[in-house]
Amino acid sequence: MTLKIISAQQIEFEGEVTSITLPGAMGQFQVLKNHAALIAALAQGTVTYVTAEGETQSRDIAGGVADVKNNVVSVCMY
Known about the structure:
- The chain is mostly beta strands.
- It is 0% helix and 71% strand.
């Protein structure tokens, strides 16, 4: 699946991943391949993802919105 992490200034990350853990406003949640479509508010916290190569990476965010649809996860962060 494809992950796009976008700020107001630039695309912070775009690539293939196997899983993503997000700091949802109602609690942390994970997105895997073929996840149901959703839009979620994100709280301050850490976005953690595993790249297609198996490398775990993370990025701190102040909040934002996540959109999941057709194996594309777009994270618009503050």
